[in-house]
Specification:
Elements lengths: L3 H16 L13 H7 L19 H9 L1 H25 L6 H19 L5 H23 L4 H27 L9 H7 L4 H43 L17 H6 L13 H12 L7 E5 L6 H14 L3 E6 L13 H12 L4 H12 L6 H14 L7 E6 L7 H14 L6 E7 L3 H8 L4 E2 L14 H10 L5 H11 L3 H13 L3 H10 L6 H16 L6 H13 L6 H7 L6 H7 L4 E2 L8 E2 L2 H7 L3 H4 L6 H19 L23 H8 L2 H16 L4 H25 L2 H19 L6 H22 L7 H4 L9 H6 L6 E4 L9 E3 L6 E6 L5 E6 L3 E6 L10 E2 L10 E4 L5 E5 L4 E6 L10 E2 L3 E6 L4 E7 L2 E6 L7 E4 L6 E7 L5 E7 L7 E8 L5 E8 L10 E4 L5 E6 L3 E6 L5 E6 L11 E2 L5 E6 L2 E9 L5 E5 L6 E6 L5 E6 L4 E5 L5 E2 L10 E6 L5 E6 L6 E5 L12 H5 L4 E7 L5 E6 L4 E5 L4 E3 ...
Helix pairs in contact: 1-4, 1-9, 4-5, 4-9, 5-6, 5-9, 6-7, 6-8, 7-8, 7-9, 13-14, 13-15, 14-15, 15-16, 16-17, 18-19, 18-20, 19-20, 20-22, 23-28, 28-30, 28-31, 30-32, 31-33, 32-33
Length: 1528
């Protein structure tokens, strides 16, 4: 079994080899294999290829090589170095080619050395050092080849012998020429310094080059053979292996992706042989000794002590022994390795690679998880790692290596990973975890207390041992070419820090100025702190790299992009961002001691985080090389914007030709391939991070102007491109940060054109992200249409893309507020809770959805939670921890959820408990208090520790509420004895640790017979608590003893009291007046003494909070104002929110008063988030309509006659008429009472309306004047309805238990329906009339007793026909067939259709079950052949059961029925769908999507009508889109 990542490596190798004219290697002709291999070296001129069996010293060969020397060497050396670099890189990442690694590295160095000889470098001392080291390695390589018998090795040995002999000749000549010179120099160095004649030097140079070329040819043949053999093996695996790997693990060309190389530690050095013996032996003993049962080995020490090297060494050992399961190396060099988001996926793929027997199981789970919307880390760890490894067969342990956990940016993610491993490891006893990190506090807090952890007391850096044996051995092996004194000096300066030693080694190995470098290192004081030594070393590296002092700015520009980039960039990518005269690769090579360089297309990585910290620190440390992060971010922002301006254009990939019928992204094949093929890495990076870089800079006026220009010209093109990439989330995050930065910088002057353009760009994505994510090209269509017409950003775009705009008629223009509007809820929001620091906001709605928001970006954090409990009302109890790092909530089903605030990830899996539950947070522990009858259960939710039980001492006492003091020492339990005649609430104060009762309180409940919730609040210092009994009592008590301090008992007609709040910065607390909810009382905390009463609001107060200085209090009221009060004087102060809030319903104010969150009645499912620090203001006038409207608007009916009328009504009683051709509201004399229902006559001449007072108004549709009116005896009632007969002559009305039929021609009421008194309890009381037959002879209806009735109009037979059809009478509709008057279709619950034949009785013909409950209208074709419901259609004549109709166009006779034309449009998942042809047509903006969408959605023929939040109709004409769809 071989994994797909490895297979893709070989696809890439083959492509690269083909680029070097080696295609023949991979042609599988077994009979001609050797011949093909011979041809593989064709990239070397044929004259240079040695003839088998001839001597390499042949004069002819020598002459040919000499003749081609100058030209050939340059070409061959460059091509060969690239080729060998490719194979070397792959050999590092693949076990199959690992034997070639040293050979390739050796040949690369040889090429570089010969090139130096060829170019006559002036510094012969350094060149001689290179030759000396190179020859030592060649001798070792010859020994290795001699141990591998074979024809291929023999030919390579011959070539190597010739190369060595030429080098030895040079050494001998140099020694003779140097006789008498400085005896301290080695023979090679003396040869370099001797004054040779130019001709003699040229001869030896050419001879050496010739020998090298012959040797390199033979080595490449040997490599080709190895590649060929392994390629055969890979092909065999390819046929058998069908498993898929994560796309993140590979590049598009099939190679191991750069993120995978970092995550798997491919380029982390291994321990030098003989070093780290003690610690490695300790790990091996832990790994193999069954007595060591602790499953986690934690290696922790300071940065730079070699932890990663040790981790990589053990991973390599275990991989060779087939004991490695998986690994993950956290690193700041990749966004993937800075978080745990993809940890489980990477480790699981690695397990599948190292343990092939688990591959099928793991890949199955990966596929399963990828299909799920969101899976928490804890669940992924168990399903992808723990469970599969637990099934591994065999003996002994397997290991997971996790390195540098401290490089994971988020503390919550680090702790979450550790807690998950600690929780699940015991279930996989054969699995052990090697973990390395710095001793970060949060990591230590988790691991030190765990019984699973071993090795936490081991130290790598021993400053007391001045010999530093491990470092000494490392330096001795790496720097053999320098003197022992110099090596000793380096060892002493390292102080035992491997980072220092490794950096020095890399520096000396790469330089030609060793003497100068050694002098600099020797000047660093031994007594300096290690940090200071590293700083001096980094300074020397930077100075040495800056050979040309005039190039300082260029080098710093390159460094700034490497350092501030959000993900590693390659030299070529950086080169695209910089002017053409900056040679990026040269600087990167010169800084190779601190940067991981390589191929120009591979990402550059900072080798250690300490270099990044150094160069961004301060001028004293960086000393002339300081990078200012804000300035660097601005430079990067300019570069990104410039790159995008040249790249972006309309319809970037030209995926479709249609301008109306736009596809979804998923409908376009190979979008990812198209994106990567058409764009460069620089363009891809710039598109994601340009806004992030602007936000991270100190935004100058010039940069803001550049941003404004870019957004005005290329914004929609950018959004389209990011949609194709699937990266709209990055757009929202970047623009959110940019918007917040501009707001903070500008404050009250945040209304400049530039800031408005940025705000609208952000709001555009927030409002329309769902449709843009779905369909990139809708950016120019539906999304653009629903933008403010006068927007400085979109006005020009709307004109430019006018031909793409949908056919929409509305008088409602989009208006975007200055604040952020957060969507995502479908029901009215009932809670808004800020975290203590204001960075997070919780919103919950009545449908049980909870969303966590990032208030900085306006984006959602984590996956929204949806409570699936039964019931129409869901009460989620939510709270943040005291420092805001966690939050908890409990559902209606008593499911307890504890999650991290930073990412929304659960700390533990949800726990379902019985009883009344409360999530409680302390500074270090999260636990749950559960009330079960008379007892209280304490349960630790982080570590699953045993619960403790607290008994109240009374068997019949029921605990209803629990409250805990901030110091976690006291709790108050409130409840009653379950006796409704008791009319008393009881509360008890307990010590939590000892469970000792301290004090009890009994509080009378006025008139209520059942327990009424109390508000009990502790002061921040736990010294006081307040008991607030709604409607009657306020009690202040001492927090430790429970002593009663103050009592106030008053009667409140409101029966409510707001929660008391304590000021954390002063000795005051506040609560709303018991007898008057329009005012707030301030009292002194210690004694309960009255301080002030704050009066001024004209409607009830819904929220209030203290300021951070403790001197003021802010209050928010239903009167649409936010007031600020001086606490001591009670006087009103300057408000923090001028103007009016609108019809505010639910609100929250952050603790620092920087942010206000609110909802309104008209938009109860949206959160309005105001930045008060940025100078947010409210409306200029009170909007009385907002105060009186208590619900959204509802469509009552539509008609399309000459006037093209639509009717809209709201629950405030009004009904309005609109001309849908112009969007203008029409003047009419509709009743001002509450309008229950509206009907349009089939002939289009009449409009009828029913009011809640049983009045019926009939209007002339042409003049909109009342032509007739009727009255029904009844009571005020909001139920009922009315409808016309097919010929428009009859009007049927049902209301308040009564039913009537009027002949509109004669204005007479007709007989035929049993009459019942309003609200009687008669079982057959008529509830709803449904339809009149085409001949006006029959009428059908349903009653409360679950029966369907058909009466004869005008007949004295009051019983009529009837049959039982089941309950849910209010959700039944019916329709007679127009041609066969005895055929009746009945729709029940929008999910079942029954077809009845009317004879002497009602005969059921057939039943149709709809796939879902779909509200709609039932219709028949004019010839009676077809029946339609919503977008479904059946042939009702041909056969029973009915045949479903299908086709590109609707069936005949449905388009010619005038006002009764049936529409085959439907709404689903945010889109308008067509049934004929079956496909998506247009998306609907998120702000128009609501939970009960059918109330705001109506269709007629090929048009859809929606109602916006202000009650105005929006008509979407789909006819042109449908016509285009039917032509395809």
């Amino acid at each position: 079994m071989i994994n797909r990542a490895k297979k893709k490596h070989w696809v890439w190798i083959r492509r690269q080899l083909a680029d070097f004219s080696m295609k023949a290697i991979f042609k599988r002709n077994r009979n001609k294999k050797q011949k093909k291999i011979s041809e593989s070296s064709s990239y070397v001129p044929s004259e240079l290829q040695p003839v088998p069996g001839t001597s390499t010293n042949d004069d002819t060969t020598q002459q040919t090589l000499r003749a081609q020397s100058s030209k050939t060497y340059k070409d061959v050396s460059e091509l060969s170095e690239q080729f060998l670099g490719i194979v070397k890189e792959i050999s590092e990442a693949n076990d199959l080619l690992s034997p070639l690694k040293s050979a390739c590295a050796l040949m690369i160095r040889g090429i570089q050395t010969i090139r130096n000889v060829h170019q006559n470098r002036s510094n012969w001392m350094d060149l001689c050092d290179e030759l000396e080291g190179h020859l030592q390695q060649l001798e070792i390589h010859r020994s290795e080849l001699q141990e591998r018998p074979g024809d291929e090795s023999n030919s390579c040995l011959k070539a190597l012998g010739y190369y060595l002999s030429t080098t030895a000749d040079l050494i001998e000549i140099a020694a003779k020429a140097s006789e008498g010179d400085n005896k301290a120099l080695s023979s090679i160095k003396r040869a370099g310094m001797a004054q040779m004649e130019k001709g003699e030097l040229d001869r030896h140079r050419e001879r050496m080059e010739t020998a090298w070329q012959l040797y390199s040819i033979e080595m490449k043949r040997l490599i080709a053979l190895k590649v060929n053999d392994v390629g055969d093996q890979v092909e065999a695996y390819e046929k058998a292996d069908t498993t898929t790997m994560s796309a993140r693990n590979t590049d598009d060309d099939g190679t191991v992706g750069p993120e995978s190389k970092i995550a798997y530690g491919y380029r982390v050095d291994l321990c030098e042989e003989g070093t780290r013996i003690e610690i490695l032996d300790a790990m091996r003993n832990w790994a193999t000794n069954s007595e060591f049962t602790r499953q986690i080995f934690w290696l922790n020490d300071a940065a730079g002590t070699g932890k990663s090297t040790i981790a990589a060494t053990m991973a390599n050992e275990w991989s060779i022994d087939k004991r490695l399961a998986g690994r993950f190396f956290f690193s700041p060099n990749s966004r993937v390795t800075q978080t745990t988001k993809e940890f489980c996926l990477f480790v699981a793929n690695d397990i599948a690679r190292h343990q092939p027997s688990l591959a099928h199981t793991i890949y199955g789970e990966i596929k399963s998880i990828s299909s799920e919307q969101h899976v928490w880390f804890d669940v992924k760890l168990q399903r992808l790692i723990i469970d599969p490894v637990g099934k591994l067969e065999g003996d002994g342990y397997v290991f997971i290596v996790v390195d540098a956990l401290d490089n994971c940016v988020l503390s919550e993610e680090r702790v979450g990973l550790l807690n998950s491993f600690i929780r699940h490891l015991p279930s996989a006893p054969r699995l052990k975890l090697l973990l390395t990190s710095r001793p970060v506090q949060d990591i230590a807090d988790v691991l030190i207390s765990s019984p699973l952890v071993h090795g936490s007391d081991l130290q790598l850096l021993n400053i007391r041992n001045s010999h530093h044996p491990d470092v000494a051995l490392y330096v001795e092996k790496r720097l053999r070419s320098i003197s022992s004194d110099d090596r000793a000096m380096i060892i002493a300066r390292s102080g035992g820090l491997f980072l220092y030693a490794a950096t020095v080694c890399r520096m000396l190995e790469r330089t030609r100025h060793r003497t100068d470098i050694l002098k600099i290192i020797s000047d660093i004081g031994v007594n300096d702190k290690l940090e200071r030594r590293m700083d001096m070393l980094y300074l020397s590296i930077l100075k040495q790299a800056l050979i040309d002092r005039d190039a300082g700015d260029m080098m710093m520009s390159v460094l700034s992009m490497i350092i501030v980039a959000y993900q590693p960039l390659s030299s070529n990518t950086i080169g695209r961002f910089l002017p053409g005269n900056i040679y990026v690769e040269d600087f990167v090579q010169d800084l190779g001691s601190v940067l991981k360089d390589g191929h120009p297309d591979r990402p550059i990585k900072v080798l250690h985080p300490t270099f990044r910290e150094f160069i961004l620190s301060n001028e004293d440390r960086a000393n002339g090389f300081l990078l200012h992060s804000a300035q660097s971010a601005a430079e990067m922002a300019y570069a990104c914007i410039s790159t995008l301006e040249h790249m972006l254009e309309d319809d970037l990939f030209h995926p479709v030709k249609s301008s109306r019928l736009l596809p979804r992204n998923e409908d376009i094949k190979d979008v990812d391939r198209l994106v990567h093929k058409s764009t460069t890495a620089a363009e891809q990076y710039a598109s994601v991070f340009w806004a992030h870089h602007v936000a991270a800079s100190e935004i100058s006026q010039d940069l803001l102007s550049r941003v404004t220009t870019f957004l005005s010209r290329k914004y929609l093109n950018w959004v389209e491109f990011m949609s194709w990439r699937g990266s709209i989330g990055w757009c929202i995050e970047g623009l959110s940060r940019l918007r917040r930065t501009i707001t903070n910088l500008m404050g009250s002057s945040n209304n400049t054109q530039g800031s408005v353009i940025v705000r609208h760009a952000h709001q555009f994505l927030v409002q329309h992200q769902s449709m843009i994510i779905d369909s990139a090209l809708q950016t120019y269509c539906m999304a653009l249409f629903f933008t403010p017409p006068e927007s400085p950003l979109f006005a020009e775009y709307r004109e430019r893309y006018r031909d793409r705009q949908p056919d929409i008629i509305t008088s409602s223009s989009v208006e975007w507020e200055d604040h952020v509007v957060l969507g995502g809820h479908s029901e009215a929001i009932d809670q808004l809770i800020f975290s203590p620091d204001g960075s997070r906001l919780i919103s919950t709605d009545l449908n049980g959805r909870l969303q966590l928001w990032d208030t900085v970006t306006g984006g959602t954090v984590g996956k929204p939670f949806d409570d699936t409990s039964h019931g129409s009302y869901h009460d989620l109890r939510c709270t943040f921890s005291r420092i805001g790092d966690r939050f908890g909530f409990i559902t209606q089903r008593k499911e307890v959820h504890i999650r991290y605030s930073i990412n929304g990830e659960p700390i533990i899996p949800s726990t379902q408990l019985r009883g009344i539950c409360y999530p409680i947070f302390s500074s270090t522990v999260s636990f749950i208090l559960v009330a079960k009858g008379s007892s209280i259960l304490r349960r630790d939710v982080i570590y699953g520790r045993e619960a403790q039980l607290l008994g109240t001492g009374a068997d019949n006492f029921s605990v209803h509420q629990i409250f805990i003091s901030p110091n976690d020492k006291m709790i108050v339990c409130a409840g009653d004895f379950g006796d409704k005649h008791d009319e008393v609430n009881h509360a008890t104060l307990w010590e939590l640790d000892t469970f000792r009762p301290v004090a009890s309180y009994s509080i009378s409940r006025l008139s209520s017979s059942y327990y009424v919730d109390m508000n009990i609040v502790f002061s921040p210092d736990s010294s006081r608590f307040v008991i607030c009994q709604p409607g009657c009592t306020f009690l202040l008590c001492e927090g430790q003893t429970g002593k009663q301090i103050s009592l106030s008992q008053e009667f409140s007609s409101f029966g409510r009291i707001g929660t008391a709040i304590f000021c954390p910065y002063s000795q005051y607390f506040a609560y709303t007046d018991l007898s008057n909810s329009l005012s707030i009382i301030i009292r002194e905390q210690k004694s309960g003494r009255w301080i002030a009463t704050l009066k001024g609001h004209t409607q009830s107060i819904i929220h209030y909070s203290f300021s951070s200085d403790g001197r003021r209090l802010a209050s928010i009221s239903y009167d649409q104002t936010v007031r600020v009060w001086d606490i001591e004087t009670g006087a009103a102060s300057e408000t923090i929110f001028p103007g009016f809030t609108g019809d505010i319903r639910v609100c929250g104010l952050s603790f620092d008063w920087d942010q206000l969150a609110s909802t309104s009645a008209a938009n109860g499912h949206q959160v309005h988030l105001y930045s008060l620090k940025g100078g947010a203001v409210g409306r200029s006038d009170v909007e009385l309509d907002d105060i009186t409207i208590t619900s959204d608007h509802v469509i009552l009916g539509t008609a399309f006659v000459d006037a093209r009328i639509a009717v809209r009504s709201g629950l405030n009683g009004g009904a309005q008429l609109w001309d849908t051709a112009t969007g203008v509201q029409l003047e009419c004399v509709f009743p001002r009472e509450y309008v229950v229902d509206v009907a349009f006559s089939p002939n289009g001449k009449l409009i009828a309306a029913l009011t809640e007072t049983s009045d019926i108004w009939v209007l002339n549709a042409a003049t909109l004047k009342v032509s007739q009116s009727f009255e029904m005896t009844g009571v005020r009632h909001r139920g009922g309805g009315l409808f016309f007969s097919p010929d428009s002559d009859l009007l049927a009305v049902y209301h308040a238990g009564a039913a009537r039929i009027w002949n509109l021609r004669t204005q007479n009421r007709l007989a035929g329906i049993p009459r019942s008194s309003p609200y009687t309890n008669i079982e057959n009381e008529l509830i709803k009339l449904c339809t009149i037959s085409p001949d006006n002879a029959r009428i059908a209806g349903v009653d409360k007793g679950d029966k369907l009735h058909v009466w004869e109009i005008g007949s004295e037979n009051k019983a009529g026909l009837q049959t039982t059809i089941g309950r849910y009478y209010s959700q039944i509709s019916a329709k007679f067939s127009p041609m066969e008057q005895y055929l009746l279709a009945v729709v029940k619950l929008s999910s079942e259709i029954t077809l009845w034949r009317i004879g002497e009785e009602l005969q059921l013909l057939t039943k149709i079950t709809l796939p879902d409950s779909i509200p709609g209208r039932i219709s028949f074709s004019s010839d009676g052949t077809y029946m339609a419901y919503e977008s479904f259609c059946w042939d009702i004549v041909t056969a029973i059961p009915l045949l479903a109709y299908s086709g590109q166009s609707p069936p005949p006779f449905f388009n010619s029925t005038g006002l009764q034309a049936h529409s085959f449009l439907r709404y689903e998942d945010g889109w308008i769908y067509s049934a004929f042809p079956p496909r998506r047509l247009l998306p609907i903006p998120a702000e128009l999507q609501k939970s009960n969408f059918t109330n705001y959605w109506h269709t007629f023929h090929e048009q859809a009508i929606l109602i916006d939040s202000r009650g105005k109709p929006i008509v979407i004409d789909c006819s042109s889109v449908l016509a285009e769809a039917r032509q395809k």
